[in-house]
């Protein structure tokens, strides 16, 4: 065997073990009996240690020295392995252990503080997490921007400065669009109970309509919907809400977007570094284009309206146009995860600016709540009423996930670019969508993006698929046109 | 840390990883999408390799040299670790790999051959498996009896010669009892469809009645019922059969017996070598005493009769006595897994004698089918009609599980001893059982056997609990008395 083959054999086992570890997480959220929690923590820790040991195995360094990459696939494989090997090796084992311990503890403290609406109870833990992540970033990046080192874990190659430039262009137009919409009368809301069996049945139908391959996946209920796994076993979850079936339907379509990416990757990349979505941002572009640009389009909601009537009977919305407006209703709210297409990115931009300032030292942990509340009032026009609706609402910072938030908006930006290219390639797509047929869209996405997995960098992945440099212009144009029409702006 | 503490820390991670690997098997039988099979095979292999590497880690040898065992728990822990370390190290890696590959292949060939009723198609693979297991046994046992080396994996300390003496005492009385029963008129059979929801609801009620802790477990459907896991996460499965609800109910009670053993082990032994059932035979004693001596008793079936009437209405059995006879109906059959209490062990004894002869070389693989058919006719009084009802019926040999079958009957023998002691300790137990209350039985079993996990050897575990040397006499006396009364012998 060549050094490359030996490395890839070793790597393949690591990928298989990573799938096992990931499925343990799936099990925990869907199947695990409650009393198993303490044992499960030890199981997770043992798997994490096995994976960590493999990722810094000194044989990888030796193989990398000798391995030859005669083709783009091999080059890409080596690039991924090298990146992971060097990244993992740079962080001292005791710092990694301290981070794991502290974030696990901080998560519990955060949940308690959020329940108690007590920011002060969380801040000392947050300070610790910030300090440790700064140390980690310094170990990885040396003198370079520590925020970029963290961002790179979720979006390889992205920099805080580039994102800031893009986001600063997004923000004013989103703020203006939001304000214009909220000056107009709001569409009617759903106002009845929708039975759970009907929601789940239609949710499954939607998953299949968007091409979810159930022979290589399954759908279960979970408190927070997620997708999980790569290759031949990609599972999704959903949830129901008695008065809000859109929560169920659009969660499902969102997770199907993530799953479609994983399921769409070339079989030849199975259990290799290329056999996974290439970044959080590109992943989110798939979940978002399925959920929003396709799933919340006039054409597709026309079909969904008929499906809901078939499933639930008359539910108080008179026709497809009214239904389209209801699906895309914009209203005031504190919570990011419940936000509509227009306001969602404003929530993310707020977090991005604050976490970047925390990491640079421009913002002190003790000033975080005030900074949050000021920024919220500036962008959303009303005041945060309590910490669980403000600085304590998201789990991410307690888990040390600095650099993760911006990938949500990057995903929306990417989705905007991809959608523009998709519509140019399939100009009569709406004729299909209005029949509930997404196949030409999903085929295009698979051929141009999904199948390539980790072959190219995130930016090159989007460039290759959309035929343009990633830019915020398409998503802004799309939002202004769509909501301009719905709200008669 | 002392050498003992270091060893136990290492071992604890190994036990946690073994739990993860086991849950992967549970997932495969209950949740895994069908298309995931090839990926799952790689995941299993990767976990097996991680576990194997840990089990022969040379540090274990160094720790064992230095470790001191000041108390019985530490002594028992070291005994288990030493046994596993030496056993694993004795088998060359290439032989272990060849065995894994061959049995995986043989399993597929067996399934195909069984479907085709084609014994000849399976024999070359079986020959390979037998040869490899003999090599493995020789590596482990040197010049000692190879069958004993294999048996020791499932029932530490047991020998083929001891079991043969016990089983030779069982066989004639079981053959005679069977013949006497089948001379008598058979009790009526169930003869209607029982709806699945009702079966599953009553099955869950039975699980709880036998003390299954659902906060640390769950019940799912599977093609072949099994229990899985140790410690805080012990899951069981069941199945339904439209016309045979006893299949569902007694499968469930059987698996609850296995699970109760795991769930009953002292919390202090969690994720240690003592935190698992000590042997297959002792495990089977728990499943069997729950299923048969308790679950199929006159007292408990009286309660179950009422439950079935409540669930399904009148199902054609007039009263408790008739129901008791129906539950314990003995009839001709080819299949071990469907056999009643009287005939089950005759199926096992047949396999034990044949597999021992295969391993010693007294029986050639090519003569196996004829030997099976002769023995079956001798003990059961009628001829095997086709291979799937004879030599091809069980999966075990294709998987190389020689030495496993006798633990089924050993479990029944142990259950007989434990039941005798339980009845002496709780003489009025039937008063509880007739109310569906098993708690004094399960409390006695937990206190005397289950809680101790792997603290003592299998034989000493039974001795400690039952207060007697294991012997076939109690199970024979019990069967003759019970079926003598039902069949008026």
TrEMBL record, chains A, B:
EC number from the UniProt entry: 3.4.17.19
Keyword line: Carboxypeptidase, Hydrolase, Metal-binding, Metalloprotease, Protease
Cross-referenced InterPro entries: Peptidase_M32_Taq
GO terms, molecular function: carboxypeptidase activity
Keyword Metal-binding annotated: yes
Enzyme class: hydrolase
Catalytic activity field: Release of a C-terminal amino acid with broad specificity, except for -Pro
PROSITE patterns: PEPTIDASE_M32
Protein's job: Broad specificity carboxypetidase that releases amino acids sequentially from the C-terminus, including neutral, aromatic, polar and basic residues.
Similarity comment: family membership: Belongs to the peptidase M32 family.
Protein name per its UniProtKB record: Metal-dependent carboxypeptidase
Annotated organism of origin: Yoonia rhodophyticola
